[in-house]
Every structure is written in C-alpha cells, then in structure tokens.
Amino acid sequence: MSQGDNGLTFEEVVNRRRAYRALESVEITKELIEKTAHIAQLAPSCFNKQPWRYIFVFEKILLTKLQNEGLSKGNKWAKAASMIIAVFSRIDLDCVISDRQYYLFDTGMATAFMILHLTDQGLVAHPIAGFDPVKVKELLELPDEMHLITLIIVGKKSDKIPDFFEDYQKKSEVKRPTRKPLDEFIYMNKYIKK
C-alpha cells in the first residue's frame, strides 16, 4: 500500500482518526489550510458541482468568541482548539433530485477527506453537532440561506485529560468506543430485515 505524508498507509490513517477531546494548541498555518482545502477540492460530487463551503476560524479573537458563545456546554473541551472549521452548503449548490438532499452527501464526502488529511498531519479533527447554529451563523456572518451542517474542532491531541471531562469522555480518550459489528449494518445483495 502507498503511504501518506507521515509514512502511514490509508488504513493506518483511518485507524488513527479519533474524536479526541483532550487537545493542546498547535500552530495553524496558511499552508495547512490551503492543503486541507485542496484535499476537499478533490472529492467527488454530482456533476462536479462541489457544493461544499468552509470557513476556517483560527484568528484568536473570533475563535474565542465562537468557543464561548457558539458551542453547547457539553463541548467545553473545544475551548482548547486551535481552529474550528464551519462546514456549510445550500441545496441548490448541488444536484436536486426529487426529495434527495444530495448536497449533504457530497459535502460530507469532501469533509471526510479533510478530516483524514488532518489526521495524517498528526492533528485531531473532531466534528460536532453541539452548537447554536443561529449564534454561529451570526458570528461568522453566514447568510440565512446557507445550511450550517457541522463544526470541526481542530487541535493537537493532548495526553493530559482535563478534570472537568465526564466519565464517558475520559474513557473514550483512552480506548476507542466500540464499533457496531459488520452484520448490523451491511447486507449482501438485498435488504433482509434483522
């Protein structure tokens, strides 16, 4: 298998990717942002429409405001992040096929590419759902018609687990949460009710 920037195979990068919460600060460079965006740019999309949009927030004053005012209380750990990436799009930026909201799928694929790239760079890229979309959109001056899909918390993994972490958070820092067995989510040739 071929190896990435850090000498890891693709499978090793996927295995290394974890939603860690114990973070320490890391320098965010223009080069890191541009390379990460380029990786997203390479993702497939319906008719190559590339509906994904990202705001890379790393400037300290805005980052702190976003952390203090935009995140849910359960994401207090994200105050140690060095960057937050806002992931957003709009239905008409991609193929509109019946009732399928394809822009979410295509944006998800591009975002997964970015998360794996950041993992390959030795960083944590932890997507979250716990944020106030109205407040975050206001802080980032994001137009109402844009759909804010997720925020990705970026930093360097810390070996020091903060005392304020909930028990489940402490446990997941040490050991990967269990994954569903394959037979719970894959089917061969056709769907069979389980």
Explain how this protein is built:
The protein is α+β, with helices and mostly antiparallel strands and 194 residues long. It has a single domain, classed as NADH Oxidase (3-Layer(aba) Sandwich), CATH 3.40.109. Helices cover 33% and strands 18% of the residues. It is built from 6 helices and 7 strands. Strands 1, 2, 3, 6 and 7 form a 5-stranded antiparallel beta sheet that branches. Strands 4-5 form a two-stranded antiparallel sheet. A hairpin with a 2-residue loop joins strand 4 (96-97) and strand 5. The termini are far apart.
Q: What's a concise summary of this model?
A:
It is built from 6 helices and 7 strands. It is α+β, with helices and mostly antiparallel strands and 194 residues long.
CATH class reads: Alpha Beta
Percent helix range = 25-40%
Main structural class: alpha+beta
How large is the radius of gyration?
Answer: 18 Å
Query: Total helix count?
Result: 6
Looking at the structure, what is the overall shape?
Answer: globular
Low-confidence residue ranges:
none
Q: Do you know the CATH architecture?
A: 3-Layer(aba) Sandwich
